Amino acid sequence: MNSQPVNLSFRLIAQLVLFVIVIPLLPLLISGQWRWWEAWVYALLYILSFAVSRALAARRHPDIIAERSRFMQQENTKDWDKKLAPLAALSSGMILVIAGLDALLSWSPAFSMPVKIVALVIILAGYALSSYALIKNRFFSGTVRIQSERGHHVVSGGPYRWMRHPGYAGGLLVYLATPFFLDSAWALMPGTLTTLLIMLRTSLEDKTLQEELTGYREYAGRVRYRLLPKVW
Fold first, then answer.
1. Sign (positive/negative) of CA torsion 99, 89, 202, 131?
2. Residue 4 has pLDDT above 50, yes or no
3. How far apart are CA 191 and CA 29, in angstroms?
4. Are the CB atoms for 99 and 184 separated by under 8 Å?
């Protein structure tokens, strides 16, 4: 009778350790360069963005953390997203792994400070956009599914006034800018792969929503762009 809450608590703790401690510190853990200030700044921004966005989202939508904690466990997750979601997560994590290896083995020359400053601004913008989307959208799940049991409906406020998938758009800004901030040209390879996977996932998710979520087709007619206003 009591096993489910215990398992849920353990799962939540494990996810928090992975996403709030291990992943943002990967470049430092792999390289062993503890004076690498860019990696510390990146980790701090990652952790702050994660913690603040989840706290604000949970305050606005108390059930959203439970929804997101069941990543890959909902029965009605789309079959294609059961493959794409973990693949995109793995690919994005490889950006940090490659950056750490790059620093350890000195594969890439350092980028100039102006390039790093621009990259940092883009990373901040990406985290801000993704966090804003999470806070405004009660149905911001970790996988693509129609959340009928939660009263799933179209969300058109906040950043959803400008683009249909601002969470993905913010993530792409971070994925593409991180290699420049962490001095890793090689990390652009998983960054590019992650971009392609996210674009594919966005296209399939948008098609699913237009076909299965009431009112989404009309919303898509008003908000024309999926990820990048005036482009796509």
1. negative
2. no
3. 20
4. yes
pLDDT tens digit sequence for 85-100: 999 999 999 999 999 9
Residue predicted with more confidence, 15 or 121: 121
How far is 38 from 190, CA to CA, in rounded Å? 19
User: Residue 214: is it exposed, middle or buried by C-beta count within 10 angstroms (0-12/13-18/19+)?
Assistant: exposed
Whole-angstrom Cα Rg for the chain: 18
- Residue 160 has a CB neighbour count (10 Å cut-off) of 19
| pLDDT value at residue 229 | 82
Question: Strand, helix or coil at 109?
Answer: coil
Q: Domains in the chain and their CATH numbers?
A: 3-222 (1.20.120.1630)
d(CA 103, CA 31): 6
* Two structure tokens written together for 202: 């966005």
Residue that is written with structure tokens 């758009």 in the block: 169
Q: What is the sign of the dihedral through the CA atoms of 91, 93, 99 and 100?
A: negative
Helix (H) or strand (E) holding 146: none
Contacts of 106 (CB under 8 A, 6+ apart): none
- Distance in angstroms (rounded) separating the CA atoms of residues 53 and 58: 8
Whole-angstrom distance, CA of residue 226 vs CA of residue 192: 18
Q: Classify the C-alpha dihedral 229-116-101-96 as positive or negative.
A: negative
Judge residue 206's burial from the number of C-beta atoms within 10 Å of its C-beta, 0-12 exposed, 13-18 middle, 19 or more buried. Answer: middle
Of 220, 178, 216, 217, the C-alpha closest to 42 is 178
